[in-house]
Amino acid sequence: MDPELSDERLMLAYRDGDAEAFERLYQRYRTRLYRHLAYQCGDPALAEELYQDIWIKVIAARADYEPLAKFSTWIFRIAHHRLIDHYRRHAHDVAGRFDDDCEPDELPAPAGVNPAVQAERSAIAVRLSAALAALPEPQREAFLLAEEGGLTLEEIANATACGRETVKSRLRYALGKLRHSLKDLL
After folding, report:
1. CATH of domain 7-96+114-180
2. 155-181 residue pLDDT tens
3. Number of DSSP helices (H) and strands (E) in the chain, helices first
């Protein structure tokens, strides 16, 4: 199989029965989709559950898949809907909940890394996570779809079913709030 196939071509190949195509899609999206969910809900266990649900939905939808939009837009739209469904069922504030078992400073430092630099990076990661968690959910989602998902304004608008100008405003407000929250680091 050609390693340079687009996501859409891989999904079409998977639709037609090529399991290797699914594996390649999974590899391409596993990190950024999971990180998007983890930042959105603030709970690694919940993010893992939602993540698995999304891939199950991709598998279930494969027979009907048509590349009407970019695959990235399609899968992040599924993620958006899954998050909304979760929030509706469990109307609670997820922005402030983080699992203490996954603090960045508890991860082992790579060999040869200066401990002071590693500690500074961990502190910055904690600050960034807190700043992201403090954003209103629509702004956080738009920011993460742009940064983690690599989606354009139009793709974010399609994934979240809102207008391009709304996405642009959400991104502008999110960036402003992040700059304000992290101004001492800039």
Report:
1. 1.10.1740.10
2. 999 988 899 999 999 999 999 999 999
3. 8, 0
